[in-house]
Amino acid sequence: MPLPLEHHVPLAPxxxxxxxxxxxxxxxxxxxxxxxxxxRWAEGENSPxxxxxxxxNLVIGDEGWDGxxxxxxMRGIEHECTGDRVRVRVAAGEPxxxxxAHTVAQGWAGLECLSGIPGSAGATxxxxxxxxxxEVADVITAVHLWDRRSEQRRVVSKDACGFGYRDxxxxxxxxxxxxxxxxxxxxxxxxxxxxxxxxxxxxxxxxSPTIARVRDRVLELRRGKSMVIDPxxxxxxxxxxxxxxxxVTRDVAEHVVAQARRHGVERDVPQYPVDDQHxxxxxxxxxxxxGSRKGERHGAVGLSTRHALAIVHHxxxxxxxxxxxxxxxxxxxxxxxxxQLRPEPVFAGVRW
Length: 352
Prior knowledge:
- There is one protein chain.
- By secondary structure, this protein is an alpha+beta fold.
- Helix content is 26%, strand content 28%.
- It has nine helices and 21 strands.
- Strands 6, 7, 8, 11, 12 and 13 form a six-stranded antiparallel β-sheet that branches. A four-stranded mixed β-sheet has the order 1-2-5-3, with helices on one face.
- The longest helix has 19 residues, at 319-337.
- The chain is globular, with a radius of gyration of 21 Å.
């Protein structure tokens, strides 16, 4: 069967930022055989490969991608129950929030706090996606992948994934594998996760919430920050959180506190212990405390009016404008607090 090969395909409509140029070639990958054939074709053409699924965590350059884009569209959800646990196998192209909605409807606890996150299931282990007190690493048991180096199918256990904060071995070696499917272990009839302060406080004084109620509340919180894709939301064109929250030594954190006082920042510096040596400081706090503000505009791009961690494309802009604005934000934080912000999205055809 011939490859479903397209040429000069605009990529902006396939991303949540709605920015970037066209792909020289694009192949829709709906099964593993097509993936293997597509990778071999790209190698024969000496073309670089970009794996694209939901496009929610991707910044594509204005010149597009001068190679092959593999649009991952493999679908399928299978499950097997054992006692009070359920093992769920999910194809890489399954929309993530549809999966979360499905598991919550079944009464399977473990993903409820990850509601409303755009993108596909296959991307979640790469970033170790997390929100509101849960991470994919909490429930993932295995990742099925195609090893591009050995040209073999492999199943990698959780321990071999190298999970960290918004990190994994797959992110550190982006051109080595393609995720085919993930396996998750969820708790049948389990209690919801209420680790995150903002979420847990919203249920104080009430009966223990169901996982369905927790999902609803997470969606409410995300909508309030324009972190749920909504065609009527003027902040809708974004990649979500553009920077990761920096993890710094306690000495650096003390320097941040001193600088905040020096510059008359009235709010206390929020710090969350990571271990005995390190704390996490919210990037959104650093951005605002360094002089940036929600709703700030630089032409066609700017900060969300609802969340200082989301950079928004207002339409008619260019990727170069967005990256330049992001660098302005990062430079302000560096100059005031001596903390380097690192972008969370993947950059393709453009350098950070």
